[in-house]
Specification:
2 domains; 8 helices; 57% helix
Length: 241
Amino acid sequence: MRRVSKTLAGALAVFLLAAGLAACGGGSGESSSPSSTSTEAAQPQADRGSGGSGSAKSETKGGAGKAGAGKQGESQASSRKGEAARFKPKQHNDSGGGSQQYVQKGGDNSIQEFGEEAGRQEFNDAAVALHNFLDARAEGNWAAACDYMAKSVVESFEQLAAQAKQLKDTSCAGILEKLTNPAAKSAMKQEAEKADVGSLRVEGDRSFVIYKGVEGTILAMAMANEGGKWKVASLAGTPLN
């Protein structure tokens, strides 16, 4: 099962990268500690000069800061919803044909032989989810891309991003944007345009969409079934050839 393990390793690599961002956030938090200490040390002088009003002002300012942060978060969430709403799914024509066309003689065919070949309707649903994810990502519409990602992946992003104090937008869309190299935009656009789904191998709530990408590369994208809908469970396809 080397290919399956490689797919999982790829997803873990993304989480580790996000964890690295979280670690940077922790460092930022520590560096802010001296500022807090300095404020506490200066406060008694303000109290002496204003009969305690300095302390009251400090508390009021802090409260306003929290309220401002709350409004900023609401504004970002509203903006992301609008971003997702602007995404318009495109029509794609997939060749199908099943996984047998991708079997390599003497090679590792663990994904090609994973579970069972899906029926036509399930194949179509998974193919649409993959195409929409790739198209949204190519457009830089991160909020829409997150709509087609598995809940477990989205929640992991949000949990890790919440720990990165230097990130202003800790939503799935915000962290996905930070994790994506701007230089890869051209490659992502090509992959979205060239993706041709040939197979969906299913086992329970897990599956792999096998598709042809740029320059004939055969890729497998991990998928997860959530409430009857297939969602992308990785950020990139695993090469099979």
